[in-house]
């Protein structure tokens, strides 16, 4: 069950339906936060952010991407390539743009996908995004050790099956409801999606210069330790982007889950400083 004040439903877009958690503020929204999860993640990774964002006047919409947990699936590697997933994010943004400026937030792999969505939108002259926040997400492929881990996971899936791979990756699985949820979510992920997005994590090039030229305000946010992209690398990326840089104390790769109140406060402060931009009118979506 979603938390009080949060609706769970399939969001209809021109690219199909996507499972979302949607928290609306009491009054007219100051804008909408579109929250895109990372590798093996889901919309639930942002649960701790929903109430504080809504309390500050922002609508918060967390999504399951294509082939993630409760969202629709498709066959073939192309369905889960970075371009296809970025186009999904654009469609999601268009579907929630009636609630004011869209502030795009991507965690880890979700940051690479969100960056792709911004670049595609700007290139097409139809950007619906007022800003981009990258949480624990770097300039390109992940560091060497995470690359090997992802390679082992994706190679093991077709041979061992998802249940065995899960046990290998989590020899000390979390007990109780959280452990049951994590296992259920893992088994619901489409194997083709895990393989294709794992390839993105291993091979995505550095596109920082293109993002800097796009003109969209960027916020680089991380914990004070990160195993996927070293924190000094994130510092340098922020400098290259002339971006807001926030380090959340006592957090690691997922400050959105580990320190949600501090993470929400940093994002809200950033959004309040973003100047309004002209937003292209989204096309009509059949519902």
Q: Encode the helix/strand succession as letters.
A: EEEHEHEHEHHHHHEHEHH
Strand coverage percent: 15-25%
User: What's the Cα radius of gyration?
Assistant: 18 Å
Q: How many separate structural domains?
A: 1
The total of beta strands comes to: 8
* CATH architectural label: 3-Layer(aba) Sandwich
The global form is: globular
- Overall pLDDT confidence: 92
Kindly report the oligomeric state of this protein: single chain
Return the structural class: alpha/beta
C-alpha termini separation: 25 Å
Low-confidence parts lasting 5 or more residues at pLDDT below 50?
A: 278-287
Helical content band: 40-55%
Give me the CATH superfamily: Alpha/Beta hydrolase fold, catalytic domain
Number of helical stretches of at least 4 residues? 11
Largest sheet: 8 strands, mixed
Strands side by side in the biggest sheet: 1-2-4-3-5-6-7-8
């Amino acid at each position: 069950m979603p938390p009080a004040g949060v609706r769970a439903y399939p969001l209809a877009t021109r690219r199909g339906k996507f499972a979302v958690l949607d928290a609306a503020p009491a009054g007219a929204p100051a804008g909408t936060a579109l929250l895109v999860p990372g590798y093996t993640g889901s919309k639930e990774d942002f649960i701790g952010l929903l109430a504080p964002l809504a309390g500050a006047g922002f609508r918060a919409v967390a999504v399951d991407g294509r082939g993630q947990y409760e969202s629709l699936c498709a066959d073939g590697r192309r369905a889960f390539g970075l371009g296809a997933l970025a186009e999904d994010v654009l469609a999601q943004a268009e579907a929630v743009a009636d609630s004011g400026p869209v502030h795009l937030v991507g965690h880890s792999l979700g940051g690479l996908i969100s960056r792709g969505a911004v670049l595609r939108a700007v290139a097409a002259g139809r950007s619906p995004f007022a800003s981009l926040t990258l949480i624990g997400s770097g300039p390109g492929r992940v560091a060497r050790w995470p690359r090997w881990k992802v390679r082992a996971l994706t190679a093991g899936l077709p041979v061992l099956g998802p249940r065995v791979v899960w046990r290998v990756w989590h020899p000390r699985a979390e007990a109780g409801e959280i452990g049951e949820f994590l296992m259920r979510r893992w088994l619901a992920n489409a194997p083709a999606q895990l393989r294709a997005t794992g390839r993105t994590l291993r091979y995505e090039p550095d596109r920082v210069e293109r993002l800097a030229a796009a003109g969209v305000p960027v916020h680089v946010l991380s914990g004070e330790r990160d195993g996927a992209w070293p924190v000094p690398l994130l510092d340098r990326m922020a400098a290259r982007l002339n971006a807001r840089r926030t380090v959340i104390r006592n957090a690691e790769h997922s400050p959105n889950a580990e320190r949600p109140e501090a993470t929400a406060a940093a994002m809200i402060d950033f959004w309040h400083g973003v100047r309004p931009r002209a937003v292209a009118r989204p096309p009509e979506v059949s519902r």
